[in-house]
Amino acid sequence: MDFFQTVKAALDFGLWSDKTPIEDRLDSYSNDQFSWFYCAIGAEQRLVLAVSPLVATAMSVQMYDCPANQLSLQETFDAVTEVTNIMAGLVQKKYWPNHEIGLAQAMELTEAERFTCRNCELSTMISVDGGILFVGVATGKARD
Questions:
Q1: How far is 80 from 103, CA to CA, in rounded Å?
Q2: Helix H segments across the chain?
Q3: In which order are the strands placed within the sheet that holds 105-106?
Q4: Distance CA 59, CA 10 (A)
Q5: CA distances from 122 to 11, 32, 104 (A)
Q6: pLDDT digits (tens, 9 = 90+) for 44-101
Q7: What integer pLDDT is reported at residue 118 of this predicted model?
């Protein structure tokens, strides 16, 4: 629950009504149901974010304060990478304060498939207004 609270703090900038940890396992979903992003924390840890389309749209609506139908794919991408950077910063500060963080990047589906085979040191799945958000931290480079 402690990791959930850290991740939730990154989402609190938004006004979403529902940010609830859920018991679903990531492997019960198809990897292609999500957009995947990662951010390096030091040389070994990788924060990985998987967002359903509904959550990605909600992030961009909150960030740009305009209706979803007025947002471009680039703006949605920018919003999700910004949230990934915020989460990585909070996780780094709490768990690895002496490590530097990289910039958030999109993760290819093949990389995501390799990631889902790893054990995460920390992870949480969250229901955000009906969409799904997964955040995990794994050891090793994202492209291993």
A1: 12
A2: 2-11, 53-64, 73-95, 109-115
A3: 19-21, 122-128, 131-139, 45-51, 35-41, 105-106
A4: 11
A5: 17, 22, 18
A6: 888 888 898 988 998 888 889 899 999 999 999 999 999 899 889 888 988 899 999 9
A7: 67
> Positive or negative CA dihedral for 15, 40, 120, 56?
positive
Query: What is residue 101's DSSP assignment?
Result: B
Q: What gap in Å lies between CA 123 and CA 70, rounded to an integer?
A: 33
Structure tokens of 136? 């995990």
CB 59 within 8 A of CB 14: yes
Task: Quote the CA–CA distance of 121 and 59 in Å, as a whole number.
Answer: 25
pLDDT averaged over the chain?
80
Cβ(80)–Cβ(59) under 8 Å? yes
Q: What does the alpha-carbon distance between residue 59 and residue 72 come to, in Å, rounded to a whole number?
A: 13
Domains of the chain by start residue, with CATH: 2-139 (3.40.1550.10)
Residue scoring higher pLDDT (43 or 138): 43
**Contact assessment for residue 13 and residue 90, using Cβ atoms and an 8 Å cutoff:** no
